[in-house]
């Protein structure tokens, strides 16, 4: 994972009520400062086949249209304590073709990573223990045939997480997501959701 600074461009906030849930969470609420709190259902997850053998399609993703030539950012808190607690950005084409990128609590440590799925899932993850309990911003940029995933903690530098091939051209949606595969009671605060131009360069 390397430090990068994506080209900054004008962006616009997306209102929480603009999205549609892939699977409704246990509850949602918006605080006075505009933060969206989402409580995940126990057992919610997104995965297809690889290594584990199962298919899970029960993530809570709040989705709007996502088009080539744009980027999306989601800022969220990380109150993760149990195995596989996770949140970030979800990009969905179909039940068999999707990408999720964010922070996942694995084996006692938060990891930053992505799951790229086209029939079968492919997971990459890097431990970031210093990010525990701190706000994180995920950014996915769609340019031509690829998604570029970046992340930063608080106001720190952007880090390149993943460059993944992406061959969908229409009917794509994306937005914030949360999953709680192993427990009940996980409530994640989402502070900001925005869309802008795609990053103009990889480095």
From TrEMBL:
Species name: Kocuria carniphila
Q: What is this protein called in UniProt?
A: DUF1349 domain-containing protein
Q: Which domain of life is it from?
A: Bacteria
Q: Which Pfam families match?
A: DUF1349
Instruction: Extract the InterPro entries matched here.
Output: ConA-like_dom_sf (IPR013320), DUF1349 (IPR009784)
